[in-house]
Amino acid sequence: MNPHEVLAVMTERGAVQEGHFRLSSGKHSDVYVQKFRVLEDPALTSSIGAALEARFHGRFDCVASPALGAIVLGFATALAADARSIFAERVDGSLDFRRGFRVVPHERVLVVEDVVTTGGSARELVDLVGSEGGEVVGVGALLDRTDPATPPDFGAPFAALARLDASVWDPDECELCTRGVPLAEPGSRRAR
Predict the structure, then answer these.
(1) What distance in Å separates the CA atoms of residue 118 and residue 133, rounded to the nearest whole number?
(2) What residues make up the domain containing 68?
(3) Which residue intervals of the chain are DSSP H helices?
(4) pLDDT tens-digit profile of 96-107?
(5) How many domains does the chain have?
(6) What is the pTM of this model?
(7) Which of 40, 58, 17, 8 is nearest to 161 (CA)?
(8) What is the CATH number of the domain that holds 113?
(9) Residues 35-66: pLDDT tens digits?
(10) What would the mean pLDDT of 111-120 be, rounded to a whole number?
(11) 158: β partners
């Protein structure tokens, strides 16, 4: 899938939403990506996973994803590569491997995230994999919505299937808050 196809299918499926949103990073934005409108389709998810695997073809043995949002995408990418799939969960505010998941020392790991805005969760997972002795060979994502002026540094190559430009503000500088636009909080960190 090329970037145009990825954005087109996300728009067609209603995954790209406009409004006033608090992102999982805590920042505010006028665009939210409800990626599960796309990832609910197994065949489409398989195609997306295969496209992401192709960006890092043959360079990893394991895919590690942060819960909750990127588990499905990480699994689809691992399936396309015939690789192992694991995920990290938040425990007391920090990502950690649970459920018996571990990284084997020197294992080549691809970190797969769904949507990268600040890169905080992906960076945290890169550090976690490294602390277990794994070698992060790259960070892959469905969408890159980072600030092009300050791209994230993961210490490994970063590739996203598409780029989505949207306004992002710190909460105290949010133009939508200033205008009184109601704030929605759809992210998985607040899922119950």
Answers:
(1) 25
(2) 3-190
(3) 3-12, 36-39, 42-55, 71-81, 120-131, 175-178
(4) 999 999 999 999
(5) 1
(6) 0.90
(7) 8
(8) 3.40.50.2020
(9) 999 999 999 999 999 999 999 998 999 999 99
(10) 93
(11) 139
